[in-house]
Amino acid sequence: MNAAYKYISDVVNSDANVTEGMKKIISYCSSYCASSIWGKIMNLDFEGDKYNLMEWMQYNLTNDPLSNEVDALWFGLFNGVLEDDEVCVLYLSGINCVNNGKENMGWDFEHQYLPEHRYADSKVLNDISIMLKNEGGVVSRVGEYIIYLGYTCLVIANILKELDKVALLRQRSVLVGFDSGDYIQLKPIVTI
């Protein structure tokens, strides 16, 4: 999946809006393995979900503020259960940068910020999860990596362009990824 990871990074860093970016990501999935599921996913309301997630993020950052010590926002993905269905769950936390004394900087994934309402209610992620689980096989495996990571990176990157950044207090890094593996570092949030 290294080529997929690079492709997702390229699409997210192209500054595409969520719908444009998802067209590219879904086209990539379709070229990898044909399925009618890709068209069904493309018909989901990405922009509506973006506004729902923006309200969730703004609520958390306003009502459960970040401490100045948190270096980065972590938008984590993991498999959870919703009404007896296994779905991809998105949550918000804060992590710190670690310096091991060399030039290499890394991330300490022990959560320094865990807002009370950290779990997002993403209809798009829920619907994609159910569709992919029902499809099964290679389509499910491809989608669970490329679509989950791609959609989440795109929606978070686009939200951060519009979000009221006053609650962020200072410049912070932003990472989106799987608790069990790969993540993508988005452009840092710059406050005024």
What would you say this structure looks like, in words?
This protein is an alpha+beta fold. It has one domain (2-189). Helix content is 46%, strand content 26%. Helix 1 (2-12) packs parallel to helix 6 (137-162) and helix 2 (18-32) packs antiparallel against helix 6 (137-162). The longest helix has 26 residues, at 137-162. The model has no long low-confidence stretch (mean pLDDT 88).
Task: State the gist of this model.
By secondary structure, this protein is an alpha+beta fold.
* SS summary, helix count: 6
User: How far from one another are the termini?
Assistant: 37 Å
Low-confidence segments: none
Kindly provide the radius of gyration, computed on alpha-carbon positions and rounded to a whole number of angstroms: 16 Å
Count of distinct strands: 5
Compressed to H and E, one letter per element, the order equals: HHHHEEEHHEE
Biggest pleated sheet: 5 strands, mixed
From the spread of the alpha carbons, the general shape counts as globular
What share of the residues lie within helices? 40-55%
How many domains? The number is 1
Which structural class matches the secondary elements?
alpha+beta
What is the beta-strand fraction? 25-35%
- Mean pLDDT equals 88
For the biggest β-sheet, the strand order reads 3-2-1-4-5
